[in-house]
Amino acid sequence: MTTPLKPGRRLLADADALAASSPLSLADSVAEAIGQELGQSVRLVSAELETNGEAQTDDGELVSPSAVVTAVLPQKGQELQTEVTAHLEGDAAYSASVRFAFAEAIDNSDDVSDLLCPGSAGWNSALRDRLREDSEFSTLIEAYDGTIGIAIGGRPVHFRCYRGHVLEVVARSILGANFVLSIPGDVFIDLVTAERNRFMETAMSGRMRSSGSGYEYLRMTSALIRIIDHARAMAVTAGYVGSERVLDTNLQVA
Fold first, then answer.
1. What's the gap between Cα 140 and its chain centre?
2. What is the three-class DSSP state of 129?
3. Cβ count within 10 A of residue 125
4. Where do runs of H (alpha helix) occur along the chain?
5. What is the Cα–Cα distance from 66 to 13, expressed in whole angstroms?
6. Beta strand extents in the chain (DSSP E only)
7. Which residues contact 86 (CB under 8 A, 6 or more apart)?
8. What is the pLDDT of residues 182-195, one digit of tens each?
9. CA angle 99, 15, 183 (to 5 degrees)
10. At residue 183, what are phi and psi to the nearest 5 degrees?
């Protein structure tokens, strides 16, 4: 069986700068470089490109690529999907990001831990169990009747809560979330592998975006910080690359 990569693995560390071209051409070049690094057996499944509005890099401009593995998701059958977020930074004002998904045939996808994919059904269940046993989290939501929403790399997670109780942690609740905090996959990796919980600094920097009720988002900020605490502990358990730096001692890593 192919040994799966772990979220947090940095790619393209030795990649050369790319010459100026269209965003799509640059994305193709990055996809090829990542594919070569991951191995010849992988195939590109999807790519989502976002730019800062520049349609073309300037003539003579060099663009530096970087990338990080954000999730490893076992598929039904004998396949593994690796999600990678890549960034392209130019000499001038040009920047872009690309979310790639690569697939690879493996011996048995059941042998791959769901904890390697934030927002997967198994990851959600593990987080639900931790939150239900956390008296501090219960206190933070004791006056709350609603649904907290986050989206990790585009993958939604809804926390249905009622007066101190976590009823469910699922991909989508029936009535939707009161608000949704969108966290890019690479930003989430940074959150769960930093030395300490940097939720507030990350939120203030604009690297995460909220939609829906701003009031409920602010009211549940402490609960969100606690959720990230548990996600950090789960990252250590699953062996995310860089999680050895986690220094929090207020949560038991089990």
1. 24
2. helix
3. 14
4. 23-38, 121-132, 135-140, 185-193, 199-204, 214-219, 221-238
5. 7
6. 10-11, 18-19, 43-51, 62-75, 79-90, 95-105, 145-152, 155-162, 165-170, 179-183, 209-212
7. 11, 12, 27, 30, 34, 65, 66, 67, 97, 98, 99, 100
8. 999 999 999 999 99
9. 25
10. -120, 110
Q: At what angle do helices 221-238 and 121-132 cross, to 10 degrees?
A: 120
Tokens of 126: 């593990």
Residue 110 class from Cβ within 10 Å (0-12 exposed, 13-18 middle, 19+ buried)?
A: exposed
C-beta atoms surrounding 184 within 10 Å: 20
What is the rounded CA–CA span in Å between residue 131 and residue 159? 10
Tell me the residue length of the chain: 254
Rounded to 10 degrees, the C-alpha dihedral 229/248/117/78 comes to -140
Q: What is the signed CA dihedral for 221, 189, 84, 52, rounded to 10 degrees?
A: 60
Q: SS3 of 155, please?
A: strand
Q: In degrees, to the nearest 5, what angle opens at C-alpha 96 toward C-alphas 105 and 123? A: 45
The values of phi and psi at residue 32, to 5°, are -65, -40
- Locus of tokens 């358990």: 237
pLDDT in tens, 63-111: 889 999 999 998 877 889 999 999 988 766 678 899 999 999 887 777 8
Which two structure tokens, joined as six digits, stand for 4? Answer: 């799966």
| pTM: predicted TM-score of the whole model, two decimal places | 0.92
- Phi, psi torsion values for 232, nearest 5 degrees: -65, -40
